[in-house]
Design goal:
Radius of gyration: 27 Å
Strand content: 5-15%
Largest sheet: 7 strands, parallel
Shape: globular
Number of helices: 20
Strand order of the largest sheet: 3-2-1-4-5-6-7
Structural class: alpha/beta
Helix content: 40-55%
Number of strands: 13
Length: 557
C-alpha cells in the first residue's frame, strides 16, 4: 500500500469506504468524517456506534482486512496532522473501533488470525494498532534470545510463534551490545506478543552461572506473569539457546498443569563431529530439585550425563508435553543417545517432527531490497556464516576453473556477519580487534575468493525482511549441508536457511551429503558437498541455461 501523503487523500479513502462494504468499517469511516467537519463539538465520552465492534465474519475477509488497513492509514495521517488534541484522541478512538472486529475473530481462529495478520504485515502500515486487536495471552515463551536481537534462534522462534496463531508473553535475556538489533524480525512476532521482557543479564553460550541466573529469574517472572494473566495454556521454549530449557523445566515443575512445548533445533549435547560437548554442571540449589524430580521417575542420571547440554535434554525428555524435532534424522540421532528405554518410549509418544517454518510469499515483498545486481550475469548468493564444517569453496573453485567466456558471466554475492570493519560495517564492542579479525579470516577462508576477487562481492548481513526481498533478485541461492563427522551415523542437520530459501522465487543450489535431509528437498540443483569438479559441471550448466548463446562461443573457442 502506498503511504498517504495528504489530508485530501486520507479523506477520500474514508469517503470511499463510508459508502459501502462491511458495516463496522462504514460506521468507522462515517464517524471519522463527522469528527473532521468544522464547528463540531465533541464530548470526551463520545462513543462510536456499537455496530463497529460487530464480530460477524465479513463475507470477503481478506478484502475487509485490506480496507481496514486503509482506514487505519487514513486515520493515522489525519491524527498526526490535526492541531486539535480532542480531534486526535477522537480519531484514534475511531481507529480502535475500525479494527476491533478482528479481535473476536482472532480469539477463536488461529488460521484466520494468521491470514489477517499476514495481510496487515504485507500492507506495510506504520503504527498499526496491534494492541487493539491482539487477544489475551494463551502462552508464555521463555526464550534466551529473542527479537529484535539478530540470531537464527530468535528468528525461528518468531516464525514458530506466528505459526501458533495465538498470543504469548515473552521473557528473554538482553543481548544489548552483544548482537545487532533487527526490527524486521521483531515485526514477524509483533502481532502475537503482548508482553516482551528482557532480563538485564550477561548472556553466555555454555557457562552454568549465567544459565542459572536466567533460568531462575525467567521462571520466577513467568509465575508473576501467569498470575496477572489469570493462567496460561502452554509454555514454549527453544534451544538453541539451552538456558531456555532450564527455565522451562523449572516453570513446568512448579506449574505442571501448563502444557510444555520444547523445541530442539539440532542435537544439543553432540557437536558437529558427533562427539559429546558441554562441561559438567554442579548439583546446586537450582539443579538439585530438578535432578531429584527426574530421578524419582526415571532412575539415576548417569554421571557423564550431568553436563550443561545433556541435562537440559533429559529434562525435556522427561517432562515436556510436546517435543519438536526439526528433522527426522535429528530425532533419530537424539533418540539413540537416550540412556533409558522408558525415556525413549516417552519421547516417541510426545514428539513431532516439523522443519523450521517458512513464511508466506507476502513477507518476501514487504521490504524493498536496496541491493543492485547485474542481470547480464548469473547471480549466485550465499547468506550466512562460515565454520570448519561449512564453506563455499566448491563454488569459488568452480568459478576459477571455468573457461573465460563463462567465468566472466557469473557473480557471487556473499552476505555474512564478519567482514572487514569499515564500508558500513563496524566491529562489535564485545570483540577485541584480534578476535574480530580471526572471525573475518574465517569468513574469507570459507569463501576462498583468491584470484576472482572481482567476481565475489562480500557484504554485511542484511536485516531479515530485506534479506528475504534480496533473495528475489538472485538466480540461485546457495545452501549447504554441514559436513557431519565420522561419529554421526547419519547427518542430523537441516540448514535453517532452507526454510527461507523455500519461500523465495529464486532457484536453489544445494551442496548435500548423501542421504541427508537436505538431499531430499526439492533444490533446483544438487551437488555433492566438497566436490569441486561436480560444482564446475553444474555451474557451467547454470550459466549456459541462462545464456544459451554462450554454448557456441565455448565450442568455437
Amino acid at each position: 500500500m502506498q503511504p498517504i501523503s495528504s489530508a485530501e487523500e486520507a479523506t477520500h479513502v474514508l469517503e470511499r469506504i463510508s459508502t459501502s462494504g462491511y458495516k463496522p468499517l462504514v460506521h468507522a469511516a462515517e464517524s471519522a468524517l463527522t469528527c473532521l467537519r468544522p464547528r463540531v463539538l465533541f464530548d470526551d465520552d463520545d462513543k462510536v456506534d456499537e455496530e463497529v465492534t460487530a464480530s460477524t465474519v465479513p463475507t470477503d475477509f481478506e478484502e475487509t482486512v485490506q480496507r481496514s488497513c486503509e482506514v487505519v492509514a487514513a486515520l493515522n495521517f489525519l491524527a498526526r496532522s490535526s492541531s486539535s488534541r480532542n480531534v486526535r484522541l477522537k480519531l484514534l478512538r475511531i481507529r480502535c473501533y475500525a479494527v476491533s472486529w478482528m479481535k473476536q475473530i482472532f480469539e477463536v481462529s488461529p488460521e484466520m488470525r494468521r491470514r489477517g495478520s499476514d495481510i496487515i504485515q504485507a500492507m506495510g502500515i506504520p503504527d498499526f494498532p496491534w494492541d487493539d486487536i491482539r487477544p489475551g495471552s494463551r502462552g508464555l515463551a521463555l526464550l534466551y534470545n529473542f527479537s529484535p536481537f539478530q540470531d537464527t534462534g530468535a528468528t525461528v522462534a518468531s516464525k514458530r510463534i506466528r505459526n501458533f496463531g495465538c498470543s504469548v508473553d515473552v521473557i528473554a535475556c538482553s543481548f544489548l551490545h552483544r548482537k545487532k538489533q533487527d526490527t524486521t524480525v521483531e515485526s514477524i512476532a509483533s502481532p502475537y506478543v503482548n508482553r516482551r521482557y528482557f532480563l538485564p543479564l550477561a548472556p553466555s553460550w555454555a557457562s552454568w552461572e549465567p544459565y542459572k541466573a536466567y533460568a531462575t529469574k525467567a521462571s520466577e517472572l513467568g509465575k508473576k506473569f501467569m498470575e496477572s494473566n489469570k493462567g496460561y495454556e502452554f509454555l514454549y521454549t527453544r534451544a538453541m539457546w539451552a538456558p531456555s530449557l532450564y527455565a522451562g523445566a523449572k516453570f513446568k515443575q512448579d506449574n505442571n498443569q501448563v502444557k510444555w512445548i520444547a523445541e530442539f533445533s539440532d542435537p544439543l549435547s553432540l557437536d558437529v563431529e558427533g562427539l559429546p560437548r558441554g562441561g559438567t554442571i554442579p548439583v546446586d540449589e537450582f539443579t538439585e530439585p530438578l535432578v531429584n524430580w527426574f530421578e524419582s521417575r526415571y532412575g539415576q542420571i548417569p554421571e557423564d550425563s550431568m553436563t550443561i547440554f545433556k541435562l537440559a535434554e533429559l529434562l525435556v525428555y522427561g517432562f515436556a508435553d510436546e517435543i519438536i524435532f526439526t528433522n527426522s534424522h535429528q530425532k533419530q540421532t537424539m533418540l539413540e543417545h537416550i540412556p533409558s528405554r522408558v525415556l525413549r518410549e516417552r519421547v516417541e509418544k510426545h514428539c513431532i517432527v516439523e522443519n523450521h517454518p517458512t513464511l508466506p510469499r507476502g513477507y518476501y515483498e514487504i521490504s524493498d531490497s536496496k541491493y543492485d545486481v547485474d542481470d547480464s550475469v548469473l547471480n549466485l548468493a550465499y547468506f550466512g556464516e562460515f565454520y570448519s564444517s561449512r564453506s563455499i569453496t566448491e563454488v569459488t573453485s568452480a568459478m576459477r576453473s571455468l573457461p573465460k567466456c563463462l567465468a566472466q558471466r557469473v557473480n557471487l554475492h556473499v552476505f555474512t556477519n564478519y567482514i572487514p570493519a569499515g564500508d558500513g560495517n563496524r566491529r562489535p564492542r564485545q570483540f577485541s580487534k584480534i578476535q574480530y579479525e580471526a572471525l573475518v579470516k574465517r569468513a574469507h577462508d570459507g569463501v576462498g575468493a583468491q584470484g576472482i576477487e572481482d567476481k565475489v562481492h562480500l557484504n554485511a548481513s542484511l536485516p531479515y525482511l530485506e534479506f528475504l526481498s534480496t533473495t528475489e533478485q538472485m538466480d540461485y541461492l546457495i545452501v549447504n549441508d554441514a559436513r557431519s563427522g565420522e561419529h554421526h551415523a547419519i547427518n542430523p542437520y537441516l540448514p535453517s536457511k532452507w526454510s527461507d530459501y523455500a519461500g523465495s522465487s529464486a532457484k536453489t543450489w544445494a551442496f548435500v551429503e548423501d542421504g541427508s535431509i537436505l538431499s531430499s528437498k526439492p533444490a533446483s540443483v544438487k551437488t555433492p558437498v566438497g566436490d569441486s569438479w561436480a560444482a564446475r559441471r553444474d555451474l557451467w550448466d547454470m550459466i549456459v541455461a541462462k545464456f544459451p548463446d554462450l554454448e557456441r562461443e565455448v565450442f568455437d573457442s
